[in-house]
Amino acid sequence: MSTVETVRGPVETGALGRTYMHEHIFVLGAENVQNYGAGAWWDEEARVADAVAKLRDLAAQGVSTIADPTVWGLGRYIPRVQRIAEQVPELNIVVATGIYSYNDVPFQFHHRGPGTLLDDGTEPMTDDFVRDLTEGIAGTGVKAAFLKCAIDAPGLTPGVERILRAVAGAHRATGAPVTVHTESSIEAGRIVVDLLGREGVDLAKVVIGHAGDSTDLDYLTALADTGAILGMDRFGLDIINPTDARVATIAALCERGYADRMVLSHDASCYMDWFGPDPELMRSAAPNWHYRHIDQDVIPALRAAGVTGAQIDQMLVENPRRYFTSA
Ligand SMILES: [Zn+2]
């Protein structure tokens, strides 16, 4: 019997059910909230209640698990997520460890770790990630179940490379699966499978996040042929790639036999402070970017494009279960 850690404790991987593999609850800058949100646009109780309502609605659609890749750089704060998880017992929330940066490592690692002033031969990031995975996060008792890092338009900067290597080290130590935010316009997934492959990461345990921003079947099949899983995980971000193009790409990949290499999600959140205090402003720029879009619009469109119910189950149930099943 294989289990995966969730906010409320271990769950059998066979019981995860329909799983959205990349949904945030909150994306926040802690310093933004603490210095500019408090007393102004940030109301902790209102935001928690709003998240509970949105996640209950998500669970009511038959989604029983979300993987939330919110880590350092995106405002991970587990006590708040715990409060929400307690009030939505019908939804499993799987949380992550790692660092989200497109450029440099956080200042807290500038002078500690490989090649720095205080180099003691270890990578302190890896130690932190492993502790989150094996002992729990910040005394909450909640264990992370996967690793998260990022590579965006700046490419493999020294900071990004160090974070990817630190994530690889934590994967080797624990076997925990990995999700990487990638920028498809620079084909960053290729850099990821190359680097993580050389670092000894089992690519079958790697989601190339945001691969679905691309419609280039050569790029996508090259990634999938390494064993990696394609994150078709930004449904609703039509400004990057519209739903009909995302759907057509998935249908083409299913036809070529890649249903076992894709997972589906929105990369949505209950609240995100990146677009200013008023989330409705983003609503007008991306009206479909919410937790209901896949169930309401995407699955019917996939069916209409010839994707079978079994292939949809493969992407929503079987592939997430396999990803979170330890070897
Ligand atoms: Zn994300």
UniProtKB/TrEMBL annotation:
- Kindly give the Gene3D superfamilies that the UniProt entry links to this protein: Metal-dependent hydrolases (3.20.20.140)
The chain's coiled-coil residues are none
Q: Which domain of life is it from?
A: Bacteria
Is Hydrolase one of the keywords UniProt gives this record? Answer: yes
> By its UniProt entry, which Pfam families does this protein fall under?
PTE
Keywords of the record, alphabetical order, are:
Hydrolase, Metal-binding
Annotated protein name in UniProt = Phosphotriesterase-related protein
Its ancestry begins with: Bacteria, Bacillati, Actinomycetota, Actinomycetes, Streptosporangiales
